[in-house]
Write a structure and sequence with these properties.
- The protein is globular and about 55 Å long.
- The mean pLDDT is 97.
- By secondary structure, it is α+β, with helices and mostly antiparallel strands.
- The chain has a four-stranded antiparallel β-sheet with strand order 1-2-4-3, with helices on both faces.
- Helices cover 43% and strands 13% of the residues.
Length: 223
């Protein structure tokens, strides 16, 4: 695909085919994504790519601990709940997804099923856990750089027919992720990207989030 087509057509994928993703294809995606801009060429990112039984154990541990009420232990700062227009946008995309999936407001069973899907990283065949070096912790630049490389990962994957969703629900129980993925203590777990071949029959995959206009987002001076 042309670059503009990749950016304009990409969407978050939450339903996947039961079809493996070749390791070499993932390596190719990472190699391209790592050309992302990075402050002073620091390249703080590391990737722990998990699949198969390893990913299954992460799913199982994440679900079991969350359902049991074990406190969230994500290693990046979540900040306060969204308010105002940001909360409105959060609700808007949730409504779009629930409508696509036929989940009614009072249907607790289907709502819980959706939550559990998130805990399981939407059953994607691959998860890429992104970390950065703990020696750089405390500043905003390393997570900013990780955001840049994640953006490149999902767009490069899309250009090759793969779908992704950036999914921190799947790493809420960081001790499980750290143990199963073999992440050493000198790394901070930033986020994860679920990846696989999109299931075109999964209703939520057709959802396209609404975006504010350039006029709302940008201020031009001196033109």
């Amino acid at each position: 695909m042309e670059f503009d087509e990749v950016i304009k057509t990409r969407r978050s994928i939450r339903g996947y085919l039961d079809k493996p993703v070749p390791k070499e294809l993932i390596r190719e995606i990472l190699e391209i994504a790592m050309r992302a801009p990075t402050s002073m060429n620091s390249q703080p990112w590391n990737f722990y790519v998990v699949a198969g039984e390893v990913l299954d154990r992460i799913r199982k541990g994440n679900v079991e601990r969350n359902v049991a009420g074990v406190p969230d232990s994500r290693e990046f700062r979540m900040g306060p709940p969204y308010q105002g227009v940001h909360r409105d946008r959060q609700v808007e995309i949730a409504v779009q997804l629930f409508q696509a999936m036929g989940i009614e407001r009072g249907d607790k069973e289907k709502r819980m099923d959706w939550v559990l899907r998130g805990f399981r990283q939407f059953d994607a065949p691959v998860s890429i856990v992104i970390t950065y070096d703990k020696a750089l912790a405390g500043g905003d630049i390393p997570p900013f750089d990780c955001g840049g490389v994640v953006n490149c990962i999902v767009n490069t994957a899309w250009s090759r027919g793969l779908g992704c969703v950036i999914n921190s629900q799947g790493i809420m129980q960081s001790p499980v992720v750290r143990e199963e993925a073999g992440i050493p203590d000198d790394q901070v777990i930033q986020t994860c990207v679920a990846m696989g071949w999109p299931d075109d029959t999964f209703p939520a995959n057709a959802v396209v989030s609404k975006r504010k206009s350039v006029d709302e987002a940008a201020v031009f001076r001196g033109f």
